Structure formats: structure tokens, C-alpha cells
């Protein structure tokens, strides 16, 4: 994101320094990357810590029905992907990235602490969603500015940054979930708020290692020459296929996003979480997905690299279709297990196998889709196309809340079978769209 700063700001913005002068202190990367990594880690700890408890809190404490709780969960999850579109615009035009990040972090922390009052549940969700809108698009945009344009470390920096995302998501259910289950919901929510405050403190204290906001004049970037992406479709011919992909991703996400929603409801009573006599807290289940992201990402990337070396790497839409099918297969597994359980809790190993398949599918579709949108954005429409990806996330989360309302009357087995069908339809649609984006990646 491009942003500007003003001399009237009350938050001092550190002067810009060349990347080479910012030093290196962590795996040969600039110190600023450490600051951004830790800030993002604690923000995600805060964000996912609250979401780990949210569905259980609504049903058990606020006494919402499962259908209403699932719908509210989907509305909130959709909102946090809608507000970044406006937050990025506000940072570009008025606030600047640094002030937007600090304001967003303060709003999120306030929202988490506001959850201490049951009567302020909905205002608290609004505060968190608004804060996330200011925070989410602006922090990662600073990563690239730590490096010169030709710095070979630049590409790997985003991989390191993504580790921070998943580390926070891994720690959140283990800490906030445990505190919430043992000592009360508000203790868990409070821990999430403290995590956000820690992230903000790290960001402010480490500001001298971060790049300054770009001046307003930097918004006027020269148009990308058509030769830069010779194989990518241009103009409206590229935008329409990407729009169709985005609509397919909305359908896919309506099934994918059930992991913290209806799946969490089923796990609470439908899975035996006893391991060697130890009762695993139900909120810890939400740590399995980020854990497998850690374990499987190097394997998946290595597989693609070897395939590329042989000239057989699948095209992006083929990868995405495989991912959607993998998520569908994971839900089909649950449908068979839940449907044959006779109402008795199923063994926890089935849940472990589910998350293995589910995470592999995720790695094939969601990161690949974001990269596809960034790479094939028509000339002069880069921000619009990335916004469309955020809108797909918004629409998918919103639709997931509507879909989740069917859990109660379909039953676990029937509902998971329906989710498998939704993901399978998305996979088929992605395969059908391949001819429209033949120039969008690898040859197969």
C-alpha cells in the first residue's frame, strides 16, 4: 500500500533509511523484519485467540442457538475481510501506514477488552473488525520496503513473515483457549487483548528499524508495461476470468470456513479428546491447522519445485482445483465417520487425519489464489484485483454463516457431506475455468 505522512502527526515517523543501513540480525534479514514478524505474530495471537473462544462463548454463555451463533460467526468473519478495503484506502489518503497500524491495533485491543461485558458483545466485534481493517493491509505492505528492489532476500522475507502469522495462530488456542476454558471466557478474551498490546508495543519501540511512510507522490507509479507479463491476459479479458475465479472461491470458502464454526461445535461433543488419560481442551483443536501449515508447507513447496524442474508443475488453477478437492475429501471423511458413529464420540485420530487433508488442500488453493490474482492483475488494476480477492474472502465467510445454519437440521453426517459437495463443486468449477487463464502460469 502507498501512504503518506504529515508533519502534524502526533506519532513520530522514523526517517527512511536505505535497506543496507538498517542492519541484519535475524537469519541475515533486516532488523525491521524481526519487528514486523513479532508484531504480526502477536496480532494473530490476539485475533485467533478471540475466534477460538467465540463460537463456544456465544452458545454456552450468551445462550445463542447453534444456527444463530454460526450466522453471527460468519458475519463477523466476513466483516474482518471487508474492512481492510476501506482501511487501506484511509491509510493511503489520510492516515499513513504507521498511524493506521497503531490506530487499528488500539481498536482491536479495546474490542477484546470490551468483550468482558456480555452486553457489549456486538460493539466489541465491530471494534475488532474496524481495527483489523486498518491493521491488516498496512503491516505486510512494509515488508517489501525493507529491501532494495534488487535485493535477493526480498522474496524469502514474505515466507518468514508468514511464519509469524501461523505462529500466532498456533499459540492462540493453546493460551487463550486454555485460559478461557479453565478460568473463564473473559480471561481468555483479556489474554487476546494483552497480546495485541504486546504487538503494538513491539511495533512502536522498534519503529526506528522500519521504513517510513512513502510520500503521497509515490502513489503515482508508472504503468506496468505490457511486456512485464507477456503471457498474462490484459484488460477486461483478464478481469472477467479472475472475477469468475473469485466467485468460485466464495463458494469454496463457505465450506472451508466451517473449521472454527460448525466443526468446532461438533468436536465439542462428537469427538473423544482423551489422549493417554489426558482430556485435551476442545479449543486446542484449533491449533492443528496452523501446526500442519508449518509441517506441510516445505513439503508442498519442495514438491512444486521438483515438478517445475521437470517441466510438469501444475498451472495455478489446477493446483487450486486439487486444493478444493482435498478439502472436499476431508469433509467426506468426516461425513463417513460421523454418519457411522451411531451418535457416539469418534476417536480423535479421525480428527487428526481430517486436519491433515484439510490443511494440504488449503495450501494448494488459498496462497496460490492470492498469487494468481497478484500476477494476472491487468495493467492499472492491481489494487482493484487484490481488493476482489479480499471481497471473495468476505463473501465466502458471510456465506459460511448462512451455510452453517443447516448443521442442526442436517445432522453432523449429512452436513459434512453437504460441505464435501460444495468443495467438490468448487473444484469442478476451477477446472472448467482453466481454458480462460491458459496464460496464467505453468503449462499443465
From TrEMBL:
Residues 1-11 have a biased composition (Low complexity). The chain crosses the membrane at residues 71-91, 121-139, 160-180, 186-206, 238-256, 276-304, 316-337, 349-366, 373-395, 407-433. It is a multi-pass membrane protein. Keywords: Cell membrane, Membrane, Peptide transport, Protein transport, Transmembrane, Transmembrane helix, Transport. Residues 32-438 form the Major facilitator superfamily (MFS) profile domain. InterPro entries: Dipep/tripep_permease (IPR005279), MFS_dom (IPR020846), MFS_trans_sf (IPR036259), MFS_Transporters (IPR050171), POT_fam (IPR000109), PTR2_symporter_CS (IPR018456). It is found in: Cell membrane; Membrane. Residues 1-23 are annotated as: Disordered. It comes from the Bacteria. Gene3D superfamilies: MFS general substrate transporter like domains (1.20.1250.20). PANTHER family: PROTON-DEPENDENT OLIGOPEPTIDE FAMILY TRANSPORT PROTEIN, RESISTANCE PROTEIN MDTM, PUTATIVE-RELATED-RELATED. Belongs to the major facilitator superfamily. Proton-dependent oligopeptide transporter (POT/PTR) (TC 2.A.17) family. This is Peptide MFS transporter. It comes from Roseateles violae. The lineage of its organism: Bacteria, Pseudomonadati, Pseudomonadota, Betaproteobacteria, Burkholderiales.
Amino acid at each position: 500500500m502507498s501512504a503518506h505522512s504529515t508533519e502534524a502527526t502526533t506519532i513520530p515517523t522514523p526517517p527512511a533509511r536505505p535497506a543496507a543501513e538498517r542492519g541484519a540480525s535475524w537469519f541475515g534479514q533486516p532488523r525491521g523484519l524481526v519487528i514486523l514478524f513479532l508484531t504480526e505474530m502477536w496480532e494473530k495471537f490476539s485475533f485467533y485467540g478471540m475466534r477460538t473462544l467465540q463460537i463456544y462463548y456465544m452458545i454456552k454463555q450468551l445462550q445463542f442457538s447453534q444456527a444463530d451463533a454460526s450466522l453471527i460467526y460468519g458475519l463477523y468473519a466476513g466483516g474482518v475481510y471487508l474492512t481492510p478495503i476501506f482501511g487501506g484506502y484511509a491509510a493511503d489518503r489520510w492516515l499513513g501506514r504507521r498511524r493506521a497500524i497503531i490506530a487499528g491495533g488500539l481498536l482491536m485491543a479495546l474490542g477484546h477488552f470490551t468483550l468482558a461485558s456480555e452486553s457489549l458483545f456486538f460493539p466489541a466485534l465491530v471494534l475488532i473488525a474496524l481495527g483489523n481493517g486498518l491493521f491488516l493491509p498496512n503491516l505486510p505492505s512494509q515488508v517489501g520496503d525493507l529491501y532494495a528492489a534488487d535485493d535477493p532476500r526480498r522474496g524469502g522475507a514474505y515466507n518468514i513473515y508468514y511464519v509469524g502469522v501461523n505462529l500466532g495462530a498456533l499459540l492462540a488456542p493453546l493460551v487463550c483457549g486454555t485460559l478461557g476454558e479453565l478460568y473463564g471466557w473473559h480471561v481468555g478474551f483479556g489474554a487476546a487483548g494483552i497480546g495485541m498490546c504486546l504487538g503494538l508495543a513491539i511495533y512502536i519501540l522498534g519503529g526506528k528499524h522500519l521504513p517510513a511512510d512513502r510520500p503521497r507522490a509515490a502513489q503515482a507509479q508508472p504503468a506496468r508495461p505490457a511486456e512485464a507479463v507477456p503471457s498474462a491476459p490484459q484488460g477486461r479479458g483478464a478481469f472477467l476470468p479472475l472475477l469468475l475465479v473469485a466467485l468460485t472461491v466464495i463458494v469454496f470458502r463457505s465450506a472451508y470456513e466451517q473449521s472454527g464454526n460448525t466443526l468446532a461445535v461438533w468436536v465439542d461433543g462428537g469427538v473423544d479428546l482423551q489422549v493417554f488419560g489426558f482430556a485435551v481442551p476442545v479449543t486446542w483443536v484449533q491449533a492443528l491447522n496452523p501446526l500442519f501449515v508449518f509441517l506441510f508447507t516445505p513439503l508442498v513447496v519442495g514438491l512444486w519445485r521438483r515438478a517445475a524442474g521437470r517441466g510438469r508443475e501444475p498451472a495455478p488453477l489446477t493446483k487450486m482445483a486439487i486444493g478444493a478437492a482435498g478439502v472436499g475429501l476431508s469433509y467426506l471423511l468426516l461425513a463417513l465417520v460421523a454418519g457411522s458413529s451411531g451418535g457416539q464420540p469418534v476417536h480423535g485420530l479421525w480428527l487428526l487425519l481430517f486436519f491433515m487433508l484439510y490443511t494440504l488442500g488449503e495450501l494448494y488453493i488459498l496462497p496460490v489464489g492470492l498469487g494468481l490474482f497478484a500476477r494476472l492483475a491487468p495493467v492499472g488494476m492491481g489494487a482493484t484485483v487484490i481488493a476482489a480477492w479480499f471481497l471473495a474472502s468476505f463473501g465466502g465467510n458471510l456465506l459460511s454463516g448462512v451455510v452453517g445454519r443447516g448443521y442442526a437440521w442436517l445432522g453432523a453426517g449429512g452436513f459434512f457431506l453437504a460441505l464435501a459437495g460444495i468443495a467438490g463443486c468448487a473444484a469442478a468449477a476451477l477446472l472448467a475455468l482453466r481454458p480462460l487463464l491458459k496464460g496464467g502460469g505453468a503449462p499443465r
